[in-house]
Design goal:
This protein has helices spanning 9-19, 22-40, 46-70, 72-78, 91-109, 114-131, 140-147, 150-158, 164-185, 189-194, 200-204, 206-229, 237-257, 266-290. By secondary structure, the chain is mainly alpha-helical. It has 2 domains: 1-113 and 126-136, no CATH class; 163-291, Four Helix Bundle (Hemerythrin (Met), subunit A) (Up-down Bundle), CATH 1.20.120.
């Protein structure tokens, strides 16, 4: 008979906080907030912005919680610091929380237009497909490449404004999405390989994953530069120039200060820096095109 550990309320709160993957979710919330504000500027309806951000936050939290639920058996063996493995949160509680957050997402989206709901449901399906099997396959990179472009598209559609640059942002965001997938997988690549997970990063290996991540970031920067120079997307040069320069410097820093020879612990910081670079590039480009 299994003995159920008695938990203090503070342990339960800590468990759900860790289960929510707070930093990655915060990055997504910041991203959708930036895109929504850019889309609505200068006629900002704060109630609409709040719904767009809250719905996306609920979706990201659902995906994050169910990610740990799906990984609970592997975590019990190799990641005993995880909240479910530690006994802070029980599996059925994580599953219930994930489902309730998904329902909350839909309820928050109902006052918005149907396109916002449709785009969110597509992103949600990709995220849960990643959790329930695609994470351990090379298709994980494709999931990110398809999902990341939906974030700015959702933000613009959510506030009721669609401009041509949003569609040009899709291929750029797809390139950045693959870079994010590789950066996100790098901290766990050895563990994933031990557990026979065939993620894109595992297939490429540590060295080639770092290299591919930098290449996809640079390709995104080059695409933005070419679209700007050819005037395919009109953007203010005084603004997009510094954005591109900062992003190139960031990629150079990622190449020189991180890599296979560095500690595994440094790869978490590497992921956050890659995410910040992607946000600066996409957000700065949008700002330069909209002002």
């Amino acid at each position: 008979m299994e003995i159920v550990k008695k938990r203090r309320p503070s342990e339960i709160v800590l468990g759900f906080f860790l289960l929510s993957h707070p930093l990655p979710v915060l990055l997504h919330v910041v991203a959708v907030t930036v895109f929504a504000l850019l889309a609505a500027w200068p006629h900002i309806l704060w109630n609409v912005i709040a719904l767009v951000v809250a719905a996306h936050a609920a979706m990201q939290l659902s995906i994050a919680v169910l990610n740990d639920y799906c990984d609970r058996r592997l975590d019990a063996v190799s990641r005993q610091d995880k909240p479910i493995a530690r006994g802070l949160v029980r599996p059925q509680e994580a599953l219930l929380a994930g489902v309730l957050l998904a329902i909350g997402m839909v309820l928050l989206l109902l006052p918005l237009n149907p396109w916002a709901l449709g785009i969110s449901l597509l992103y949600f399906a990709l995220g849960q497909g990643y959790n329930f099997g695609l994470k351990s396959t090379p298709f994980s990179g494709i999931v990110f490449a398809l999902a990341i472009p939906l974030i700015p598209l959702y933000a613009f559609v959510g506030v009721g404004r669609v401009v041509p640059i949003v569609f040009w942002l899709v291929p750029v965001a797809a390139l950045l999405g693959i870079a994010l997938n590789l950066a996100n997988s790098l901290p766990d690549i050895e563990e994933d390989a031990t557990n026979n997970a065939r993620t894109l990063a595992v297939v490429l290996g540590v060295r080639r994953s770092f290299l591919a991540c930098a290449i996809f970031l640079l390709l995104g920067i080059v695409c933005v530069a070419l679209l700007t120079v050819t005037r395919t997307v009109a953007a203010q040069g005084w603004l997009i120039g510094p954005v591109l320069f900062i992003c190139i410097l960031a990629v150079c820093a990622l190449i020189f200060f991180f890599g296979p020879s560095r500690s595994i612990a440094s790869r978490k910081l590497y992921f956050y820096l890659v995410a910040a670079t992607c946000l600066i590039l996409a957000g700065g480009w949008l700002l330069a095109a909209l002002v």
